[in-house]
Amino acid sequence: MNMIKIHRILIALILAFVSLNYSCKDTTIPGGKDDGTELPAAINLTNLKVESVYNVSLSSELSIKGQGFKNDDIVSFVPKGNIGTAIDIPIKSVSNEGILLTYSTELKSGSYTVILKRGNYSRQLGQTTVNFVINPNIPDIAGKNIKGTVFSNGQGVANVVVSDGYDVAKTDQNGIYYLASNKQTGYVFVSVPGNYEVVSTNNNLPVFYQYLNAGTDIVEVKDFELKPVNNDNHIVLAMADLHLANRNEDLTQFQNGFVADVNQQIASYQGQGKKVYGLTLGDLTWDTYWYSNSFMLPEYVKQISKVNAPVFNIMGNHDNDPYFANDWSAENAYRRTLGPTYYSFNLGKIHYIVLDNTEYINTGGASGVVGNRNYNAKFSDQQLSWLEKDLATIDASTPIVIATHIQVHNAPAANGTLPGFRTSNGQQLINLLSQFNEVHILTGHTHINYRVPHNTKLMEHNTAAICATWWWTGRTGYSDNHIAPDGSPGGYSVWEMTGKDIKWHYKSIGYDKDYQFRSYDLNNVHITASQYASSAKTEFQSMVPQYAFDFANENKNNEVLINIWGYDPQWTVTVTESGNPLTVTRVNSRDPLHIISYSMKRLNVNAEPTFDSTNTSHMFKVKASAANTTLDIQVKDRFGNIYTETMTRPKDFTYNMK
Questions:
Q1: Strand arrangement of the beta sheet that strand 559-563 belongs to
Q2: Are 525 and 583 in contact (CB under 8 A)?
Q3: What gap in Å lies between CA 230 and CA 216, rounded to an integer?
Q4: How confident is the model over 480-498, as pLDDT tens digits?
Q5: Which one is the CATH code of 139-229: 1.10.10.60, 3.10.310.10, 2.60.40.10, 3.10.150.10?
Q6: What digits encode the pLDDT tens for the residues 32-65?
Q7: pLDDT for the residue 426
Q8: Contact at 8 Å (CB) between 432 and 391?
């Protein structure tokens, strides 16, 4: 390289350095010079230092160190990511040490870029986090790097559990807590006590957590404000597998079907003086379509805000960022939008625990690349360690509700034997819960209904999906119904809590509470290509027997099939014909209505079905004496509620049958 080229390169580097140095000092601001020119020397400051964290109360003053400030300067706090409005604060006083600012009530807790404005010019001073705290003078304790107050109506609340997902602490008589945190989760959360709610919300989502902003060597103050309520008698709506993705007309179906239905239920219960809460069971979104359809977790928040009750959330396997191959990294989008992936809270006298049993596997996932996505059903060791600490704060007589996405047990068979575990370390969970008198595990993932009584004290409730069969059957041109792979109508479970007394039922979207089963006259159920896939090409018509299963064959044996989606072993099923009882047999079977509503509709448009109808054990068969007799069907649930149908036969087999 010759000397001329070297000289040119040196000049270019010097000019670049000078330009960079000037641009870091001063920039124009809106309302400044129209030509966008800068005056680098307009704001000359030395020994500048902005605190990384300001813990403020109503009487606080914020200090910024440095020399060169002027009395008429204005300091502007710009929310991180420019989300929200910048707050301008005049300088209260200038000294040789720096400046003092009087705290403004407009300055909320959060992360900010701090800008100094002088005339038409500005200079960035640094980045900071503002925490509004009730008591900024809590003394430090050696080894504790998170502290704060849990308070209500200006007074500390004692014996409230606070955690960072690793350490667990209780507040003292003044509502003060301390944690020794590794700060790995990036947040701290309060286990909201019974008969309280958090004050902070994101639309209708309770903000029971606060993000951490500093390293482990810095003590952070994080307060939680509660409001007293009476929720001893409350309702929890358990809502599994929404799979919102802006496809299959899902948003229209969600709003016109589910939201309309659930808000009607909420209004009815609230009219009875009961507090109502939502609890999702994971798969709020669909990672496949995050980027292609621009529908991610923030879009989900906008949709769920239409539900007229506070909603707690759970992470599912489809709520991971598909651009990340690592399980922890893939969860960060969820943490940023919805907070902790595992936590606990109390409603009335019931202790609720949310867990994440999805270990995301995303081979090839990278920035801009959706990987080959899979998962393991497993609770992390750290999560189980935290759970043990959380449970240690709860009396054994307290009813426990565990909520997680993937089912803990496999579906039961018709013979009633206890199935094995779907979650690989499910037994560890069962062991941790063995001390409690009543435990219910709520799960989703399968899109079907079943219950597994593990023993006399613990039962799992797997709940069918809000989206039913991924919103397919209600799509225009399909069957104009909303049915899950086991034949359950799309819906959610309703938990009625009265003190420590717990009752539950499955609520089908668009139907009354009493709609708990559907019957089929199998003499009229014969699924053929000519009737249900007549527009399909020969290749797809040939697949009809494969997807129709037993119903591909004509059955004229006077049999009746009954699908009871809320069934558990304490339910009873009675069928009489002209007053004579018939033998009722529990069987494993698929639901024929689901087959014609989804599988046959897909074949009819020359598409192979993605999702099989599920072989389920909440099915029952009886054999009538003739083809035209009337049957009286009575189903009684474990709480003594009776559901009936007078089945006039022959009974038609249609897309919208009950």
A1: 518-521, 559-563, 616-623, 585-589
A2: no
A3: 38
A4: 999 999 999 999 999 999 9
A5: 2.60.40.10
A6: 333 334 444 578 899 999 998 888 887 788 999 9
A7: 98
A8: yes
